[in-house]
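BACKBONE GEOMETRY TOKENS
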Amino acid sequence: QVRLVESGGGLVQPGGSLRLSCAASGRTISLDAMGWFRQAPGEEREFVAAITFSRANVYYADLLKGRFTVSRDNAKTVVYLQMNSLKPEDTAVYYCAAGLWGSGSKWYEEDVYDYWGQGTQVTVSS
């Protein structure tokens, strides 16, 4: 089993920045990738970014490229999401997810992930 704990959410003004963290614990040696998704009120959950542990391949939702950056700390099995130039439409609950080796490679799809965090609220408002 793997446990994921997100942190770093909060209230930020438009144009501001936040950095989310997701710490994985448990059988982390089995993980191939970790990703971020978000869900706004009344909307479906959508892909934000993902990163693999083996080759540090990164994936981003097209609309978020240039503003969001995903990175990892392999030693601590922590994944970060740096969010810059935040907009009110970025307001959502942000979820961390982790996928095991052999789960697949389409890290932009929810179905390949095996574990999910509880989510952290990000609110962009003046």
